[in-house]
Amino acid sequence: MKKLFFLFIIFFLLTNKIYSKEEKMILKLKYGEVELELYPEIAPNHVKRFKTLAEQGKYDGVVFHRVIKGFMAQTGDVKFGNTKSSSFDLELAGTGGSELPDLKAEFSDMAHTRGVISAARSGDPNSANSQFFICFESAPHLDRQYSAFGKVTKGMEFVDMIKKGEGASGSVSEPDIIISLRSKK
User: Fold this and answer.
1) Tens digits of residue pLDDT in 73-97
2) Angle formed at CA 154 by CA 152 and CA 155, multiple of 5 degrees
3) What was the pLDDT predicted at 95?
4) CA-CA distance, 152 to 27, in Å (whole number)?
5) Domain positions in the chain
6) Does domain 24-183 have CATH number 3.40.50.620?
């Protein structure tokens, strides 16, 4: 019985380690690489969408169109915010998404603290699609209002370097871009 229990524990530890590796992503910025950890147990549909778009290369070349110092950096408009696309329009960046349907909200008790990745959306809680933001600081007013689905685990200093926007909206002229976003191998 002890051997069976011991084997079960070893199997669990090995499979858990493999599983967690699959939920790591690398966000390449001009400043350096940022490691992200995703939480499918909290927001499975948002994680799946994020990974799908990333693996298809949809985030490569996408601008950080809205960046507010001390709050967050928003990106992910694969329609109007992708500098590699014929549809790129900085004036419209932040109003588009992917060709996939919008996602239903997956609110949780995960706090919007420094480094948390969450789905951007319109006023409709079920309107998240491809856009996301990374918190610079804690933003408790977003808790249980936005679908948090991951966190920066390494390289937050590079996120801090993303060019900040102007005014209350945080609109960025000559914005930084995502060089690439892929699963960690």
Assistant:
1) 999 999 999 999 999 999 999 999 9
2) 95
3) 97
4) 10
5) 24-183
6) no
